[in-house]
Design goal:
- This protein has about 375 residues and is an alpha/beta fold.
- It is globular and about 75 Å long.
- It has 14 helices and 12 strands.
- Helix 7 links the parallel strand 5 and strand 6.
- It binds ligand P1T.
- Ligand P1T binds next to helix 3 and helix 4.
């Protein structure tokens, strides 16, 4: 199957009892057994639930994986990957990550004996130079949140495997989605999503996803998902599955509008700099062109007036863009990373990589382009 067909049919079969085209929402915690241990493949919904199983097959299909896992949040999915490690193990991670990922690494897992080195993954050498005998995992976010930096997944994965086959390469594919880039095909071992975002697509659920192509790794992740228990519920699974079915058409419009917004901002007299991998002057435009089908709907920019007051004036006055955390829904959102999504990163760390008060992040939705540009223009010109 090609990608668009996979979003609708991948891993799906009609429900057996009735032929229902969409899986019913199996709101059940447990399943009858005819004799102890004799059942129809379902024992208890933390282990397996038919609605979640339908979604997990879809997740596997759209990322070219063999196994998918649905979690109660994106962070729960990341937590599951980190739990494959042991005290003393080292992780190499990008230096620009979603604030919650950074917080989990530095304030939770460091406490349990994992070590992290944060490097600029723009350059493959920065990653390979950070490898030690204790390195067990590389955590790549591309495009990064919020600076839209691009890491070359294929080059990094192959350089890492050349040094040590056993180091796992995981990619947070939340910003790109499998419509734009498929990390498992590029050599990664694990793909992770905040399915809260584009996969769900309608800002009505919080969910995480993992996809893999190796049966042994799948078994390990499934054990952790079951043993730690952060599963996605059946109603949310239904909503996510419904969302995935329109991922490809939503993404087309996100990309069109994202490009239009980036170009508009690039030429706006109040704007200093725009971060969008589709712009030719983006430092990693060539890598983005190579590994992504298009450039997505996330755009960050910096105002010329670098004061917090100027940023707040803009943020308080957009009308079509809603000031809110999150991204990837059909509606356009605007976010102030320093006070919202990335507030948990200590200020010196934030400033070092350029997350300052003048930085604004847009999740460009699928409304009419004219309305979006007009809204940005009026808020910029106040
Ligand atoms: O929010 P949750 O579903 O737990 O996912 C965490 C997460 C992981 N990875 C990336 C790249 C993310 O952007 C997120 C969540 N991000 C936001 C809420 C945000 O507004 O950036």
């Amino acid at each position: 199957m090609k990608f668009n067909t996979k979003t609708i049919h991948g891993g799906q079969k009609h429900e057996e009892a009735t032929g229902a085209v969409m899986p019913p929402v199996f709101l059940t915690s447990t399943y009858a057994q005819s004799s102890p241990g004799v059942h129809k493949g379902y024992e208890y919904s933390r282990g397996k639930n038919p609605t979640r199983a339908a979604l997990e097959s879809s997740f596997a299909a759209i990322e070219n994986g063999t196994h998918g896992f649905a979690f109660s949040s994106g962070l729960a999915a990341i937590d599951c990957v980190l739990r494959t490690l042991s005290p003393g193990d080292e992780v190499i991670a990008g230096d620009d990550l979603y604030g919650g990922t950074y917080r989990m690494f530095t304030r939770l897992f460091k406490k349990y004996g994992l070590e992290f080195s944060f490097v600029d993954m723009n350059k493959v050498n920065n990653v390979t130079e950070a490898i030690t005998e204790k390195t067990k995992l590389a955590w790549i976010e591309t495009p990064t949140n919020p600076l839209m930096k691009i890491a070359d997944i294929a080059a990094i994965a192959s350089a890492i495997k050349d040094v040590n086959e056993a180091i796992l390469v995981a990619v947070d594919n939340t910003f790109a989605t499998p419509y734009l880039q498929q990390p498992l095909t590029l050599g990664a071992d694990i793909v992770m999503h905040s399915a809260t975002k584009y996969l769900g697509g309608h800002s009505d659920i919080v969910m995480g996803a993992l996809m893999v192509k190796d049966a042994k790794l799948a078994e390990e992740l499934h054990f952790i998902q079951f043993a730690a228990g952060a599963i996605a519920g059946p109603m949310d699974s239904f909503l996510a599955l419904r969302g995935v079915k329109t991922l490809h058409i939503r993404m087309q419009r996100h990309c069109e509008n994202g490009r239009a917004v980036a170009k508009f901002l690039e030429n706006h007299p109040k704007v200093r700099e725009v971060y969008y991998p589709g712009l030719e002057n983006h430092p990693n435009h060539e890598i983005a062109k190579k590994q992504m089908k298009d450039f997505g709907g996330m755009v960050s920019f910096r105002l010329k007036d670098e004061s917090k007051a100027a940023a707040f004036k803009f943020l308080e006055n957009t009308k079509v863009f809603t000031l809110a955390e999150s991204l990837g829904g059909v509606e356009s959102l605007v976010n102030h990373p320093t006070t919202m999504t990335h507030a948990s990163i200590p200020e010196p760390e934030r400033l070092k990589i350029g997350i300052t008060d003048s930085l604004i992040r847009l999740s460009v939705g699928i409304e009419d382009e004219e309305d979006l540009l007009e809204d940005l223009d009026q808020a910029l010109n106040l």
